[in-house]
Automatic annotation (TrEMBL):
Protein name: Replication initiation protein
Pfam families (UniProt xref): RepSA
Domain of life (superkingdom): Bacteria
InterPro entries xrefs: RepSA
Lineage: Bacteria, Bacillati, Actinomycetota, Actinomycetes, Pseudonocardiales
Length: 449
């Protein structure tokens, strides 16, 4: 029986390998490409064919999770960076340059405690302290970190229900924040929209205990958005105070399967930092725009934090039984699956989101006026490549019709040898991009990708 190394050697020696390699390189070494069959054609206005390409092609899967596809997650992180940075620094993507002068705060809202978990706390100098849960000194890669100290008493049901309502809790927080700002300015809540607008972009990041916390850039604009001057009463200090007050004031009331009441709240830790345009960080803890956008881009590509999981939907109990994850995360998956089978929790659709430990929200969301959109960024990239093709063929875009006719033909690669070769291509493409951006002084998120 041939080994994997033998199969890779055979694939490299195949007649069509160079063509296959070029196709995989063109999509950055995507781990699970979509295969299409059909044709692409350029026609003049009279219907004459100028250029015709037919056959089978590969397109990237587009998955944002690094654990699923490193190549596509890099692209997603780059788009997330530009989306975040445009709303921070302005001067691009239709956002005015003076947006950086508006009151802005980087806020972190966390989940509450559902029981003691193993941890590895450090002091400001970086020195590690004993676990507050068990008293032991944990290594950084200790698989127990994040897991319940006493699984029997840990509130897995409460944790999953909090996770399932986290998006709704954020929505209530934004409503409360507008009310707090209006009150601080001496305005009626109904008058706030006539004086100011709250703009934000947030990303969800999983903690090692399996619960999300939200990192958000929150900005106060004028009533018509970033092009409108912010009222003089709105300051970053006021915004930070109102964020903390709003987080403490909101909650969601629900019930457990036995009918007992459960109130879902934010965790006690609500962190706020000012944002500077020029410095990386100063003594007050203010953070630089570019680095902050890079942080958020990195958060946006992370999965649950549960190692060795496919990060894909659970289809049956058997899927749970064979997952190679910690017992803590397995208990969360199992709890979400069990609750999802109960009629009282049907609207939460927990079985669909059991693989995400009950979290049902989007990982990166933004208000309408914060900056651009992912769709606009992708359309801009698509337009650039199309115009680049017209220039190469010396064609006038106004005199050409583009005709696409593609059908789905499958997903992924034919075998493990091709998957290994594609992974190698992805690493090479990433290394080349890293070298290029280091030479050009590219942004931190690209260097770290």
């Amino acid at each position: 029986m041939l080994t994997l190394e033998d199969r890779i050697t055979a694939r490299v020696k195949a007649v069509d390998f160079r063509a296959w390699r070029d196709r995989v390189t063109a999509i950055g070494g995507c781990a699970a490409p979509i295969r299409l069959s059909g044709a692409f054609q350029l026609q003049d206005l009279n219907g004459g064919v100028i250029e015709h390409i037919g056959g089978d092609v590969m397109v990237p899967c587009g998955n944002r999770r690094e654990s699923v596809c490193p190549a596509c997650s890099d692209r997603y992180a780059a788009d997330a960076y530009h989306l975040m940075h445009a709303g921070l620094a302005g001067g691009s993507k239709g956002v005015p340059a003076d947006v950086s002068e508006k009151p802005r705060v980087f806020a972190t809202l966390t989940a509450p405690s559902f029981g003691p978990v193993h941890n590895r706390p450090t002091i400001t100098t970086g020195k590690v302290r004993p676990c507050t849960g068990c008293g032991e000194w944990h290594h950084g890669d200790d698989p127990r970190i994040g897991g319940a100290v006493d699984p029997g008493s840990y509130d897995y049901m409460g944790a999953v229900l909090w996770q399932a309502h986290a998006g709704k809790l954020w929505h209530r927080f934004t409503i409360a924040l507008r009310r707090k700002l209006a009150g601080a300015a001496g305005l009626k809540v109904s008058e706030f929209k006539n004086h100011a607008r709250l703009s934000y972009a947030k990303v969800a990041e999983y903690q090692r205990r399996g619960l999300v916390h939200f990192h958000a850039v929150i900005r106060v604009d004028g009533p018509d958005g970033p092009h409108d001057p912010t009222p003089a009463w709105a300051t970053a200090e006021l915004l930070g105070d109102c964020i903390k007050a709003a987080a403490r004031s909101v909650g969601i009331d629900t019930t457990r399967p036995d009918g007992s009441a459960l109130r879902l709240l934010w965790g006690e830790q609500v962190d706020t930092k000012g944002i500077r345009g020029s410095q990386v960080e100063d003594e007050s803890g203010e953070i630089n725009e570019a680095r902050l956008a890079g942080y958020v881009a990195k958060y946006a590509t992370k999965g649950t934090g549960a190692k060795d999981t496919a990060d894909r939907p659970i289809r049956s109990q058997l899927d749970i039984d064979v997952l190679h994850i910690s017992e803590h995360h397995r208990r969360m998956v199992q709890t979400a699956w069990d609750l999802g089978g109960l009629a009282d929790f049907e609207e939460l659709n927990l079985r669909k989101w059991a693989h995400m430990l009950g979290f049902r929200g989007h990982f990166l969301t933004k208000s309408k006026h914060y900056s651009t959109t992912f769709r606009a960024i992708r359309e801009e990239r698509r337009t650039f490549r199309t115009l680049e093709m017209f220039e190469r063929l010396e064609l006038d875009p106004a005199a050409v019709v583009v005709v696409n006719d593609w059908q789905y033909a499958g997903s992924g690669y034919d075998n493990d040898a091709e998957r290994e070769l594609a992974a190698g291509i992805a690493e090479r493409v990433r290394a080349q991009r890293l070298r290029k951006y280091e030479q050009e002084g590219g942004p931190d998120h690209v260097r770290a990708a």
